[in-house]
Amino acid sequence: MNENLNISDAEWEVMRVVWASGKSTSQEITAILAGKRGWSASTVKTLIGRLMRKGCLRAQKVSRRFVYTTCLEEPESLRQAVESLLTRICSKKIPNLLAYLIEKTPMIAEDHEMLMDVLRGKRPAAQVPCDCYPGQCTCHLHAEGTILSPHPHKEKSHEN
Ligand SMILES: [Zn+2]
Known about the structure:
mainly alpha, Arc Repressor Mutant, subunit A, about 50% helix
């Protein structure tokens, strides 16, 4: 499992086509992405090449054509993308982000109930430590008074 796949937004468009279809030729991928993004066959081929080098796609030759399949499952890739996003913010700020996502997400009653179950089953921690690098988060500023403090302020962690 690669922690740093870094699939770009453009590459993600290609991955979505192959995830949806199970297997696609570059012509099939181009047909969809020409419609959605106005991309040419050569743009799509470039993206396919990058994804092959990253080990995200594999090619198989079927009667003189390459057929592409994914080497990654969509849910796992989504999970990695979300976790990569979460490394960009302070752990203390994630609950606010979740609240924002929940507020703006349309959902049916079953989804609502699922989320309520998750929250009901969640045991609150006594506190959430700031895990940011000093100078990249206001938590440290407030805690130590300066971003130049050589020893990052450590909260008493893992007391939950
Ligand atoms: Zn922080």
